[in-house]
Design a protein that fits this description.
The protein is an alpha/beta fold and 637 residues long. It has 18 helices and 18 strands. Helix 8 crosses helix 12 and helix 9 packs parallel to helix 10.
Length: 637
């Protein structure tokens, strides 16, 4: 290739023409040659196969009457077939019955291995031999096997002769192509050489104010015209170079700012993770120290602090996972029927408790009562709608010390829902509003006040609302407050009667007559579930893997419900559920797993699980789910 770069354009054109023409001829001859060889082989194969079948049919009688001499006589006819080397006739048990060989140094197998496996003719070529194995079948009865070997000498000679002829033709055509290429390359190379001389002169003199005369209307003429345009563009581009350098400097500054932003984000992540971990580990150690003088009241307060810190850490982990899925475009929207007012009321009740834990009892959290006047069901992703509203209300609570937070919705033109979250917090100016939904951004009030958070909540809200085919924006003023709005399509559905029912949950659980099987391989997780279930007085059984759970169900008909982990040794929870459901179709199986993706939940439900709990599992949630399914089993439930 380096040699090709240093030769003249004339020789390059000749070389390219020769290469293309030669390559085309070689490919064409190769295709024709392969086709010809295949035809010759096919012809030889068909002739040999026909002879083999014919001799096989003649051999039916000798094989039937055990006439070795007759069979030998039939095989001797192979001497009249050109190239026939040997023939062997085997009886139906694979023993050699008769044979023919052209010379004594040819070896014939006395036994045909596995004669029953040969149900049709087999043929294959070796270097110099074509071998055909053919079962002798007459009236659906197998009499034996005939094997014939034929030399391919004549075939090989034909192939060689063909190769010599093609090589001779190729050489002649190569010489002709060289002569023609050398003659007809001049109209292309000469104008290019002239252009090269002129460009060299321009380069030496540095005078770009010249114009080359176009002498043809072909590609060379177009090249001349383009060269003239290029000279004009050089001056224009010199003027634009300074502007490009300025833009490049700005991009560099933006990249540095992005790098600083990510570095600040990582530092913030370290702070946001270590802060709750410090509280969890610190207060846990204080409670468990042998010589601790912590009073019962202090211990109760410490436990609340540990719980709050763990919830903050879990929220941070969920935000990091969500933003990662959004950036990777792996977050899926799963639309279901959603009881809108019930969802809002649950969020409101939840934040009345969260407000107490965060020490913000002064903040009045309101749910717009006008939004609850009618029971509306819509088709959306309930999980993501809940997540957006929860993030917005949590963000409002973070920046509001007193006053109120109000949220609700209204129906606009019967086509879309307008949700809002309004607070009387610190608010923000226009500059902050412009990037409030950007990732890794944290808005600080001033240097004297630090607001906790990773700078991901509002970015996640924006991405989720857009995935739900809506828009989100904010209206705010400093020291007055902020109102976040977002819209969603109003896809109303009619709810079934079962979805309209309200179930009263009895928080006094007495399951002394129930047996609960817990399939869990982690000792700490099992101990936790066992402690939660102590108040129910239920009988608890343990299985350390899926297979053990299946065996226990097979041998114990008194088990009423199963709490099933997913990731277990020997057999996972999905497979264990499928097998258990094949044994006892009606037994409720509640999954509890750290797999929290919607696809994992759907996979669990498809395997036969009745409900799904995502770790960490809260005691009230676990007891409520169990109570729901146990009530369905009871005669009065």
């Amino acid at each position: 290739m380096s040699l090709f770069q240093h030769i003249s354009i004339k020789n390059k054109l000749v070389s390219i023409i020769l290469f293309v023409s030669t390559l085309t001829m070689v490919i064409g001859f190769t295709i024709v040659g392969i086709s010809n060889v295949k035809s010759l082989k096919k012809e030889m194969h068909l002739n040999t196969l026909m002879n083999t079948r014919l001799i096989g049919e003649y051999s039916v009688a000798p094989l039937t009457f055990d006439d070795n001499a007759g069979a030998e006589n039939i095989l001797s006819k192979l001497s009249t077939i050109p190239g026939a080397v040997s023939g062997a006739l085997y009886d139906r048990n694979g023993f050699l019955f008769a044979s023919y060989k052209r010379s004594d140094d040819i070896f014939i197998q006395p036994l045909y291995k596995n004669p029953d496996e040969l149900t049709e003719s087999l043929s294959f070529f070796t270097k110099n031999i074509l071998k055909v194995d053919h079962p002798i079948i007459y009236n659906n009865y197998e009499y034996g096997i005939i094997v014939i070997q034929v030399e391919t000498t004549l075939l090989n000679k034909k192939i060689k002769d063909f190769i010599y002829i093609m090589a001779s033709i190729l050489a002649g055509m190569f010489i002709l192509a060289f002569f023609l290429a050398n003659r007809f390359q001049k109209p292309i190379s000469q104008p290019i050489l002239e252009l090269a001389k002129l460009t060299r002169k321009i380069s030496v003199e540095g005078n770009y104010d010249v114009k080359l005369e176009r002498s043809s209307n072909d590609e060379i003429g177009i090249l001349y015209e383009d060269f003239n345009n290029m000279l004009q563009q050089i001056l224009i581009r010199e003027a634009a170079r300074d502007e490009a350098e300025k833009k490049l400097q700005k991009e560099k500054e933006r990249a540095e700012e992005s790098d600083q932003l990510k570095s600040a984000f990582l530092a913030n992540m370290s702070h946001e993770i270590r802060t709750p971990m410090n509280a969890i580990l610190g207060f846990t150690e204080l409670i468990t120290m042998p010589d601790s003088e912590v009073t019962p009241e202090e211990k109760e307060n410490f436990i609340k602090l540990i719980n709050n810190s763990a919830n903050n850490l879990l929220q941070l982990i969920d935000d990091i996972i969500d933003i990662s899925k959004i950036e990777a475009e792996q977050l899926k929207i799963i639309k279901k029927d959603c009881a809108l007012n019930s969802t809002l009321k649950d969020i409101w009740q939840s934040f009345l408790e969260i407000r107490k834990h965060k020490g913000k009892e002064k903040v009045d959290i309101r749910l717009n009562e006008s939004a609850l006047e009618q029971n509306i069901f819509i088709k959306t992703d309930p999980l993501r709608l809940n997540q957006v509203l929860t993030n917005l209300i949590d963000n409002a609570l973070k920046f509001t010390e007193d006053g109120f937070i109000e949220f609700g919705y209204e129906i606009q033109n019967g086509k879309q829902l307008l949700f809002y979250v309004k607070d009387t917090g610190v608010g923000m100016d226009q500059k902050k509003k412009d990037f409030v939904f950007d990732r890794f951004i944290k808005l600080e009030d001033n240097s004297s006040r630090l607001y906790r958070g990773a700078g991901l909540g509002l970015a996640i809200c924006k991405s989720l609302v857009e995935l739900l085919n809506g828009k989100i924006w904010v209206e705010s003023a400093p020291n007055i407050g902020s109102t976040f709005y977002f819209t969603l399509p109003f896809d109303q559905v009619h709810a079934s009667e079962n979805s309209m029912k309200i179930v009263d949950v009895n928080e006094i659980y007495n399951w002394h007559d129930k047996t609960i099987l817990v399939a869990e391989d982690e000792p700490a997780n099992y101990i936790y579930i066992e402690e939660v279930l102590k108040i129910t007085k239920a009988k608890i059984l343990k299985a350390v893997n899926g297979k053990e759970a299946v065996d226990m169900i097979s041998n114990n008909s008194n088990i009423d419900i199963i709490i099933m982990d997913i990731k277990m040794p020997v057999m996972d929870g999905y497979e264990a559920t499928r097998r258990i459901k094949s044994l006892r179709k009606d037994i409720p199986i509640i999954s509890q797993s750290a797999y929290a993706m919607p696809g994992d939940i759907d996979k669990g439900l498809e395997s036969g699980m009745n409900d799904y709990l995502i770790k960490p599992v809260k005691p009230k949630v676990l007891l409520s789910i169990l109570n729901k399914h146990l009530n369905q089993l009871s005669p009065t439930g």
